[in-house]
Structures are given as C-alpha cells and as structure tokens.
Design a protein that fits this description.
The chain is an alpha+beta fold and 181 residues long. It has helices spanning 10-23, 37-42, 59-72, 107-117, 126-134, 143-156, and strands at 2-5, 31-35, 51-54, 82-84, 87-90, 95-98, 101-103, 124-125, 164-167, 171-174.
C-alpha cells in the first residue's frame, strides 16, 4: 500500500498520485490518500487513488479499509489461481494445466508463464521480463527470454502455443485465447 499525505496540499497529493499511477511499470500497489475532512471533499480520486483515510481514523477503521482494499485489488496473502481460457496457473503449488492436462515446467518457465498470465493482453518487453523473472542481478542477454518462450510454447502444444504472442522487436504477451490462424 502506498500512503500519500494529502493533509497539507491537496494539489500536490493529486500530482503525486497521478505521477505514480502513470509511471509505475507493473503491479502498482493500492494508493490510499490521507486527508482531513476538508480534503476529503476536494480530492479528485480519478487521478488514481484507490481509497482515502481521514486523519482521525481509528485503528479498527484503518485495518478494515486495508483488508477491504487488499481483497478488492486481489492482493491478499494468498496468490489466487489464474485462469485464462484453457490455461490454469496455480502459484500455490507451482502447477500449470492446459485444458486439464498438467504441464511439466521448470521453475523459470513457470515464473515466466505466471508473470505473463498475471497481465493478460499486456505487452511485456524482454527487459521487463528479465528484471521481473530473472532478477536485477542477471547478466545474460535478452535471448534467454526468447529461448524460454520457445520452450514454453513447445510444452503448451500446437493447439495452445499461440497463447503467447510475439510482438516483434518488443517482447511478448499472453492472449486470452488462441488466435484463429
């Protein structure tokens, strides 16, 4: 959760919220703006805030709002099973199924597929995939991503390999259903 202090300057809080919402690459955490009663009526939530807290909120209210926000944004302690068409990714037990058939994936293949499945339809460039799946300390090249994608497609099989779409000179995206081709 990101807390933005809006008690002193509502305009600055709106600018900060807007900037964070537009600049955050992936997995933007929920944004809560802390305001006084005057600020609650003036703050424009369309700039990207998910909720607000009044400065005199009790601990019970803060806990309740945080729990509700976690459920609403899908950020609970347990990762949910991801279902996209015939693809099922279960982060709890590292299992992937395609049309009910289990896939035997390596750890990196699983992490790569899970990362794409968490962002269906969104293009992920190779550098982003390297940073998020392999980590900042990985020194290999972007061809590593291409090789892992090729292996994933082979394991998905001819019928489902088009779930992972190549965006030339950019990266990859997971499409919700195989393309007609």
């Amino acid at each position: 959760v990101l807390l933005i202090d809006g008690t002193g300057d509502i305009d600055a809080a709106e600018d900060a919220t807007r900037s964070l919402s537009m600049a955050w690459e992936i997995g933007l955490p929920p944004i809560i703006v802390v305001v006084d009663e005057d600020g609650a009526s003036r703050f424009r939530f369309e700039v990207g805030a998910d909720d607000f807290l009044l400065t005199d909120a009790s601990m019970a209210e803060i806990s309740a709002r945080l729990a509700l926000l976690s459920r609403r944004t899908g950020r609970s302690d347990q990762e949910a099973v991801i279902k996209i068409g015939d693809l099922t990714v279960n982060p709890d037990n590292y299992q992937v199924y395609v049309h009910g058939r289990p896939l035997d994936l390596t750890y990196k293949e699983f992490e790569l597929l899970k990362f794409l499945a968490q962002r269906p339809g969104r293009v992920c460039d190779r550098d982003l995939l390297l940073r998020e799946v392999w980590g900042y300390d990985y020194y290999g090249g972007t061809r590593t991503v291409d090789v892992h994608i090729r292996r994933l497609r082979a394991k998905l099989g001819a019928e489902h390999e088009t779930l992972i779409e190549t965006i030339r000179n950019v990266g990859y995206r997971l499409v919700p259903r195989p393309r007609e081709g």
